[in-house]
Amino acid sequence: MATKELNPVAAAAEEEKAKLKEEKKKFRQEQKAQKKEAKKRAAEIAKQEEALGEDGGNGLVTFFATLLIVILWLAIVCVVIKMDVGGFGSSVLTPILKDVPVVNMILPSKSHSGSSNTTSENYGGYDSMEEAAAAMGRIAGRVEPIPEHVELYNKKYETQLNGFRKIRDEAEQEARDESRREEVVISEIYDKVIGKSVAVSGKEIVITAKEADLLKECEYEIERMVCVPNEEMMLIYRYCFTEGKRILLISDMYWERTLIEEILHKAHVDNYHALYISSEYGVQKRNGALYKAVLKNKSR
């Protein structure tokens, strides 16, 4: 059977028709691919949004947890300061924060009570310097009863010197009355002993300078013998030493430095920064004058 030949116009129309069909098919495929890509992209965006939502929730939880921890630590610090643990609140923060409103409420109660207790603050919580000095402990005390040094003198020199206690007390009072300073030294007291009359084996004699020196040596020996460590103060001393605190020893005493250092050494008190003695400064601790001298010396 013979093939029917198309005329040129019909052939061109068929070719155009086939081309359109092919383009339509290709367009549908592209649309399908675009829809598939759009769904895939939408799914990815949804996953990202979900992930972002979860991260945001976790971040909020983390923020509040951190805030709670910070608040707890601040509360602990405030309690430590308020209780004055280690003296941090009163000695370190009080001078800095005592005049800051609201903030000074975290300070120890006794540290920011205002001008009403200014006097007490000046004397470490006491109403006066005399009260503060009386409350301070001695690092070394005396055993009781204290033997009369004249008894030692009589024993050492085989004599019977009587009534010297009264002469010794009167000599000390006389030395203090005549001194221009508040405190005297032991040599000034025994200078007043020289020339006094005393009974020896029932006879009245005049005390010479040599005898006065011997009596002073006996008192020196008795003082060294009867002074013993004050255990309560020794505990404080050891604590201050182990903690690296600055240790200042302040003594209201008419004895020379050599005796006091010997007594301290006997009590194993050798580690201190300075020793202040009233006899060297001519002022007394009991009325606060020696403390003022110590503060003045430290400020230099």
Descriptive terms for the model:
rod-shaped; 3-stranded antiparallel beta sheet; mainly alpha; 300 residues; single chain; two-stranded antiparallel sheet; 12 helices
Question: Which helices and strands occur, and which strands form pairs?
Answer:
Elements: H1 8-82, H2 88-97, H3 118-122, H4 129-135, E1 140-142, H5 149-157, E2 161-162, H6 164-178, H7 186-193, E3 197-200, E4 203-206, H8 209-226, E5 227-229, H9 231-242, E6 248-251, H10 257-266, E7 274-277, H11 278-281, H12 289-298
Describe the protein in words.
The strands form three sheets. The protein has a three-stranded antiparallel sheet with strand order 2-3-4. A two-stranded antiparallel ribbon has the order 1-5. The protein has a two-stranded parallel ribbon with strand order 6-7. By secondary structure, the chain is mostly helical. Mean pLDDT is about 75; it is low at about 110-125 and about 140-145. Among the domains are: about 85-115, no CATH class; about 135-300, no CATH class. Helices cover about 60% and strands about 10% of the residues. Helix 5 (about 150-155) crosses helix 8, helix 6 (about 165-180) packs across helix 7 and helix 7 (about 185-195) packs across helix 8.
Please summarize what this structure is:
Helix content is 61%, strand content 8%. The chain is mainly alpha-helical.
Mean pLDDT: 76
The total of helices stands at 12
Uncertain stretches = 111-124, 142-147
Cα Rg: 48 Å
Q: State the assembly state of the protein chains.
A: single chain
Secondary-structure element order, N to C: HHHHEHEHHEEHEHEHEHH
Q: Going across the biggest sheet, name each strand in turn.
A: 2-3-4
Categorize the overall geometry.
rod-shaped
Strand content: 5-15%
Most strands sheet: 3 strands, antiparallel
The N- to C-terminal Cα distance equals 136 Å
Strand runs, count: 7
Could you estimate the helical fraction of the residues in percent? Answer: 55-70%
Specify the structural class: mainly alpha
